[in-house]
Amino acid sequence: MEESAQKKESQDHVVWPTTSSMSKEILRRRDTAFHVALGKLLETHGNAESVIQIGEAFGRGLFAEFIDEKPDEWTMKEWLDAATENIFDHMDTSFTIAEVRADEARSLLTQRLSHENSDESHVASLFSYGFIHGLFLGAFPKGALLMGNTISLGPPVTEFTFKTNATYKDKFERQRIKNLFTTTKKL
Fold first, then answer.
1. pTM of the complete model
2. Domains in the chain, please, with CATH?
3. Which of the ends of the chain has fewer CB neighbours closer than 10 A, N or C?
């Protein structure tokens, strides 16, 4: 695997972290998919659903291509381990699992996945929600991703709850997210 180094300086020292070719490829694809979603949002005059759908397609595509070992029946722990090792670790993202049960997991995502520090941060949040949802649906087609609070002191941290089987109430989460971003945020 080819690696390249980029200089990063902090207050009192210099670090040269390496970036693998796989990481570069995943980040390139993420940026491309995000820009497609942004263009579609402008084309559809603020249709949040299009951003989520493009994010989901991106997540499902990464799941299909980069998660090599796919058991017939996933466990929550197997999915979390595979997604973290094969996807999240390559996206400059900190994914902290707070609680894991057989049918549910709670996590905190730091340094969210795409363009959160740009002028398109609200679009990036929708895209990230769609991406993670699509990645999760690759293993749990009847599952749900619930988005909790976001804390913006320092790098943004978002709480997510993954459920292997969506309840009737959980099925409204997608609409809640769209409403949240279209009524309180400028898209």
1. 0.81
2. 22-183 (3.30.1380.20)
3. N
Enumerate residues 6+ apart whose C-beta is below 8 A from 34: 114, 115, 123, 124, 127
Q: Which residue has the tokens 């997510």?
A: 160
- Estimate to the nearest angstrom the gap between the alpha carbon of 16 and the chain centroid: 26
Q: How far is CA 174 from CA 13, 84, 129, 137, 147, in A?
A: 44, 23, 9, 13, 9
- Inform me whether the pLDDT recorded for 126 exceeds 80: yes
**Type of residue at 177:** I
The answer to whether residue 6 scores a pLDDT higher than 60 is no
**Contact of 115 with 38, CB cutoff 8 Å:** no
Residues 6+ apart with CB under 8 A from 50: 37, 40, 41, 44
Question: Exposure string (b/e) for 83-111, b if CB count within 10 Å is 16 or more?
Answer: bbebbbbbbebebeeeeeeeebbbbbbee
> Is pLDDT above 50 for 21?
yes
What is the DSSP-derived secondary structure letter of residue 32? Answer: H
Looking at residue 14, its pLDDT comes to 54
More confident residue, 143 or 153: 143
Q: 61 exposed, middle or buried (CB, 10 Å; 0-12, 13-18, 19+)?
A: middle
Q: Over the stretch 60-117, which tens digit does the pLDDT of each residue have?
A: 999 999 997 888 899 999 999 999 889 988 886 777 888 899 999 998 876 555 555 5
**Which residue type occupies 39?**
G
